[in-house]
Write a structure and sequence with these properties.
CATH architecture: 3-Layer(aba) Sandwich
Strand order of the largest sheet: 2-3-1-4-5-6
CATH class: Alpha Beta
Largest sheet: 6 strands, parallel
Number of helices: 8
Structural class: alpha/beta
Length: 189
């Protein structure tokens, strides 16, 4: 079983994922890093050269490969949920955790970490910061329907979010029964 982290840019997927993998003794995989490694280019360069469609194709290939692995913590790209095939593959052997954070918190993080936030290529052509609210709103139903657990990574710090996920996993019955759906932190309306 894999633990798969989903959520918008700068929601903490990589930071929390690395910490969680370390605590649970699991390998960590970042699908964005895998795409960049496969292309030999940054996401910005991939999108500039070939467009978002090509990036999504590469992402789908990576998701297919990593979803067949076991005992991994997988941090996905923020848009992995827009492709239903990705979610089906990830859920087949994974427990999906939505790291949810409010738009103002994501915006602040994006401005503080330009490498993974504000300088990422725009999805709509209006700029990563300007499009945040609209793109996030369009993805919330996708994150919600895909997730087995919701953790408010805007309300909880990295240590609290990691602990919340670990506790939820450790309380899971070992008989293979499905994980209970739930939310930790603020519940979206």
């Amino acid at each position: 079983m894999n633990i798969v982290l989903i959520g918008y840019r700068c929601s903490g997927k990589t930071s929390i994922g690395k910490r969680l993998a370390d605590q649970l003794g699991m390998a960590f995989i970042d699908t964005d890093e895998k795409v960049e490694g496969k292309a030999g280019l940054s996401i910005g360069e991939i999108v500039a050269r070939w467009g978002w469609g090509r990036f999504r194709d590469m992402e789908r290939d990576i998701v297919e490969r990593v979803s067949s692995m076991d005992n991994r913590v997988i941090a996905t790209g923020g848009g992995v949920v827009v492709d239903e095939k990705n979610i089906k593959r990830l859920k087949a052997n994974g427990f999906l955790v939505w790291l949810d954070a409010a738009a103002p918190i994501l915006k602040q993080r994006m401005m503080q970490d330009p490498g993974s936030g504000a300088n990422r290529p725009s999805l709509t052509g209006t700029g990563s910061i300007n499009e945040l609210g609209a793109v996030l709103d369009s993805r919330i139903p996708l994150y919600r329907s895909a997730s087995d657990l919701v953790v408010d990574s805007g309300l909880l710090d990295i240590h609290e979010a990691t602990a919340a996920i670990a506790v939820s996993l450790l309380s899971h019955p070992a008989d293979g029964a499905p994980f209970p759906a739930g939310a930790i932190g603020r519940q979206r309306a």
